[in-house]
Design goal:
Elements (H helix, E strand, L loop, with lengths): L1 E3 L11 H7 L3 E5 L8 E14 L4 E16 L2 E7 L3 H9 L5 E5 L5 E3 L2 E7 L14 H14 L4 H17 L2 E7 L4 H14 L2 E5 L15 H20 L1
Parallel strand pairs: 3-6, 3-7, 8-9, 9-10
Antiparallel strand pairs: 1-7, 2-10, 3-4, 4-5
Bound molecules: zinc ion.
The site of zinc ion has 7 residues, from helix 1 and strand 8.
Amino acid sequence: MKTLNNGKKSGYSYTRSWMQMHCFGLIPSSVAKMSSGQSKIFLGNIFHCQNDPAKKQLYRISNEQGGFVIVKRSKIMAIGRKEDLEQARAQHLADEQDVMVTVLSDRQLLIPGFVDTHIHAPQYPNCGLGYDKPLLEWLQAYTYKLERKYRDLEYSRKVFNAVVRRTLNHGTTTACYFASLFQDASLILVDAVLKYGQRAFIGKINMTTLAPDDYVETPEETIKLTRKFIESVRSKIAN
Ligand SMILES: [Zn+2]
């Protein structure tokens, strides 16, 4: 969850046709850091989604004005109205000595984190560039040039750390990332989400056609490298 004062989120705009060309090999890769951290209570204006079986709707938005959120070791344990706080605190935090209480101002809202369902991490330096060209020219003029740079792992580290920090700062607590064609660079993105505690799905990009000769893999290579990528991610999470 994220406290926001202005509710603005920076936009990423990529066309769907490009996505269909290369969005293969997407795998769940990261879990947010769920098992550490101080216990917390937030008090104030809280928006959240909840089941509403009476109306046969999956979710409805609820504004718990004068509400609370209880967080224990980075996990949300309870959300409710202020009058139920003491009971909930006794239930969930009875054994906790050190609880940080944050009281939001009247102008602050606590809302669920944003979920970005489609973000190309390597394209971050190109954010907002290239609206003068149609898709295929845009790929040639801007995209492939930049995507090739991720052979350089130092550059990858710099950009991917920046992407994760920036999206988290804007309230994106979960992201579905398209990483690089290059496996080592893609693993650096995995390191970044683990380091900063963002929940993410990360896929190695697979390009076998319709791209420059030095930015494609054969179908055999791409399957082999994707399997290797999945194994590497699993071992990173296990450790
Ligand atoms: Zn895409």
